[in-house]
Design a protein that fits this description.
CATH topology of the largest domain: Beta-lactamase
Structural class: alpha+beta
Number of strands: 17
Radius of gyration: 35 Å
CATH architecture of the largest domain: 3-Layer(aba) Sandwich
Shape: elongated
Helix content: 40-55%
Oligomer: single chain
Strand order of the largest sheet: 2-1-3-11-12
CATH superfamily of the largest domain: DD-peptidase/beta-lactamase superfamily
Number of domains: 4
Distance between the termini: 101 Å
Strand content: 5-15%
CATH class of the largest domain: Alpha Beta
Amino acid sequence: MKARLVFNSALRRLRHPTRHGIALTLAALPALFLIYVLALMPFTPGIGDIRKARVDRPALIMSADGKLLAEFKPVNREWVSLKQISPYMVDALVATEDRRFYEHHGIDWRRTASAALHTFSGDRQGGSTITQQLARNLYPDDIGRAPTLTRKLKEAITAFKIEAVYSKDQILETYLNTVPFLYNAYGVEMAARTYFGKSADQLDILESATLVGMLKANSVYNPVLNPERALQRRNTVLGQMTKYGKLKPDAYGWLKRQPLNVDFELQTTSPGAAPHFSAQLRKWLIAWADRSGYNIYADGLVVHTTIDSRLQAMATQAIDWQTNQLQWIANDTWNERTGCGPGNDLFQTFIRQTSDYRAARDAGQSDQAALTKLGTNPTFVRTLCRSKTQIQAGFVAIDPRNGDIKAWVGSRNFSDEPFDHVQQARRQPGSTFKPFVYGAAFADGARPGDTIVDRNVAIPLSEHAIWRPTDAEPPTGRPMTLRDALAYSRNRVTAQLMQKEGSEKVARLARAMGVRESPLEAVPSLALGTSPVTLKEMVSAYSTIANRGAYIEPRMVTRIEDHDGKVLAEFASASPEQALPAGAAQTLVDVMRDVVNRGTGAGIRNRFGIRADVAGKTGTTQGNTDSWFILMHPQLVAGAWVGFDDARVTLGNDYWGEGAHSALPMVGAFYDMALRSRVIDPRAQFNPETRPPRTVRARRHRHFLFWQF
């Protein structure tokens, strides 16, 4: 009953307020407002964060030999000091955006009040100072952009904090280096290069006024797309400069009649010497930085990688050289008269996958009419043909002794093809998978001189399916040694050896040796490389062979330092895992020497003249879809894949489609350069024990007997 009386009394006071009550209410409003402001302060950026935000210190990615590989920048921006910015730019900015900039402490109360009055009268105006705009630019997530009181208060609080930390010149410098100007150009330096082909310190008064004019609305006052509006806005800026004493009236009269004189050119960031490697590293580094409390864009981290800039340049050069030659062959095969002609069923399929075809069908055209119309359009055909028939390649090199990745080229050109054919692409490895079968056999006690009859075989896969592996050469019907079978890459002999060892065992061995991410289907045909894998996995597995059977996880980074050189983290090589017995690995290396001495990889010796102790394997998949070659040296294992992004496209040439003629030259040219320049030691040898004693070689051959299916 008492509570009800109190409530009714309060209700009467609200219905019939007294002067005293009104005075108390009015007095309480500022206090309530102050409490609200104080409550918002923890939800605005801290002073320490503001200091860090101004420092544009991207992570520097360094090669093992001390060369800069890349800078991790969040946007396309080059920070310049205020002294490196034209004074016309500063005058135009202050006169147009915040004429009392040097007088206020973050908030221009007179301008804010004027803007509020105009807004209440229906003429909405902005009252933000340069400092407030900077607050929005630096902290869009913390402050937001919604037209609410809370947002404006957060913006004001942050502006006060910025003014407490920065000098006026620092605020101008930060603002001019962070403001966007379209076309991925951030900051005045990139804007000057993009729109006028010069640096920020060379901007004249007209160019400065044009760029400042864009700040009101980038797209609306874009001098490239909307030159008339941009010209009008530029002249408005010149008028403001005249009004506030930064420009003489007679000069304004002449300047406003001048054209824009835009010299537009998009500014692209340099992809660096190892762009695909850097792209993978960025993902890893972001995760590490998040866990460790660092910012890869602002803390000036120096990341020391395993890449050797010399080997990286050699790998890039080798890929450029070989893919340019292969592209001539591809262009001859896929021209507008033959491969890319409307009569080619595959090219018709490509046409049907385009948006132009779908648009034609949506417009009511029949399938044949749409194909005919598009197939006879030379521009359309040329563009589609080129997009489908560009040769692609991947290359990676690893030091088998510690797992260090020394070179990584993910495609012919990162700008045209950012897709990474080293780690992202999964393709059938073909005969480069065979060493896992022979490694399993040697681990079980088989010897290189043991023989299997080279004959036709039929291997049942299920009740109704039979696999009949074939070779380019007819079967001899005679025993063939395991050494010769691997050297000459015989499918029939390898399939029989796979039967003896078992698909599961071979799959387990391949996984242990380095094929650890791609799923392997444990079926007989796995022996011939039918399960897609990545190039990085295969080269890592071959590194296990070269490292006496011990797998070491590939390593990208050795250490991370701060910008003063203090070591923040070190990353040692992973502990080796014995995946293949050392003796079996040594035997496998010795057998794979014969691949390059006299087998399918002989081009390494007779074409490139490489005399170092190397061993390797070629690989070609069915229909010449994928071409591979991997070569082992005691200090470096490198491999290349060549093909097309669309596996249905091939070179249409049995000779050039083979790994020995498409992928091998890349690896051969790379090693030739690396050995000649002594980046790797031409005298280095695998352990002498890898060559079996003569008494072992001279033993009587054993024969593996198999039932005829």
